[in-house]
Write the structure tokens for this entry.
Amino acid sequence: MASGEYGVIEAAEAPPTVDEADVVIVGLGCAGVCAAIEAREAGADVLVLERASGGGGVTAMAAGHLYLGGGTRVQKAVGVEDSVEDMVTYLMMNTPEPDEAKIRAYCEQSVAHFDWLVAHGVPFNDTMYKGKHVMQMTDECLIWSGNEEVWPFRDEAKPAPRGHKVAQVGEGGGAKMMECLIAKAQQLGVRIVTDAQVHHLIRENGRIVGVSYRVFGKEKGAVRARKGVMLATGQFTQNEEMLKKYLPELLNPGYTRQFTPNDDGAGHQLGLAAGGVLKHMDGALVTAAFYPPESHIKGILVNKLGQRYCAEDSYHSRSSLFTTKQPGRQGWLILDEKTYQPDPPSWGAYPLVDAFESVEEMEKALGMPEGSLQETLRRYNENAAKGEDPDFHKGKKWLQPLDTAPYAALDASVGAATYMAFTLGGLDVTIDGQVRTADGGVVPGLYAIGACASNIAQDGTGYSSGTCIGESTFFGRRAGRHVVAGK
Ligand SMILES: Cc1cc2nc3c(=O)[nH]c(=O)nc-3n(C[C@H](O)[C@H](O)[C@H](O)COP(=O)(O)OP(=O)(O)OC[C@H]3O[C@@H](n4cnc5c(N)ncnc54)[C@H](O)[C@@H]3O)c2cc1C
């Protein structure tokens, strides 16, 4: 896995020191830049080493949604009521292994975090996209980006939209955010070295005291860190050896993995070599959205046994993950004349299998057991006519009998629909980003933040878009303050 590329060396064997700083940050994505700004504002000399020729990382590929709530400026401006408690309840329910202290801190300080981002140059408009979409293609800000309105979450926590997109038309919000934050970091005096690939941590008397790096494959030397080293190197989606070990599902050619060439899990490997522990390494965001158009949410998802397997109004990453768990990773979205829309936008990347004059004919063509789909649809329609879904509790507004021929089957299967995926697992860290060891201690001098750490986003069923950048920026900032305080 490490193939010898990443590891730890003792100070006595380290190459000559070429630079020194209070805080050395490895990687200039959203986590690294936020940590750098906080540490610098707390008075530290901060050096960021970035492997690419410029900052941005995967963050710059992102739409730029941040999961924030509890009454942000934007929520208030568009008349959305939200509370910290509802946000806590929702995230606690949604997270497979919730760390309540982290979730509480994230929710309680969410409004302040939003204000901090704005104060540091990240723009958000006071507008909302009201429909159900994967991503607003406008520069509107607020969007429903999770399962807040989906059962059972809606019964326990008052739903509120919390996906805040950076003010940018279409998909470039992440790049815009990085542009603003890097400019701010530079203005504050954060030092940035690019084309610098960190490959070893340096240890002295059991403490991480620096890193060594190379430039275009040539050893450059060591950098000493007086207060601490922060790993902010992002996800491991590009590293096939690591995927084989932790997440072999993603090597299935039916998934399009989303990564930059530098997403080789450097931070994961460096942290592990220093005595850290990895968590939720089998967690991934896997998604193939079938909406928009919204009318497709009124359809039903069935597996090859002709049975439904989830509430179709679930957030797209949740319904997608359920599809991947069906026999043969196969599923179909069944629609009727009233709900099917031809030529949906490209988000609806489920190819049309065919149109059928009867459910019986469709069931046969899809190879389902005789009578299975017919019974599923009969039951669904009977309940939908009463505005009920006793099996999966799909929201009332999406319930409509599917009873008008011709019927359409769209292929939701892995290998047919367009599934995109990236990893979520990372180093086990304290609330302040210190890398934890197996015995419950921490690795002195070492922090991990962003996608190479494991905090709130752990798997795709509970994922709400915006959680990754939200937590990477939030916990990145916390770590930046903590390392300078030197606790
Ligand atoms: C297409 C796509 C869209 C997404 N959209 C969203 C979204 O809208 N909202 C959301 O919350 N999440 C989204 N995510 C997830 C989210 O973007 C990431 O989890 C988050 O941006 C990670 O930030 P980071 O700072 O940890 O890593 P990155 O932004 O990837 O930054 C890591 C940096 O470290 C550098 N690096 C790596 N190895 C080394 C090394 N050895 N030495 C020096 N530097 C190194 C890299 O070059 C990179 O610049 C999306 C992900 C993808 C793939």
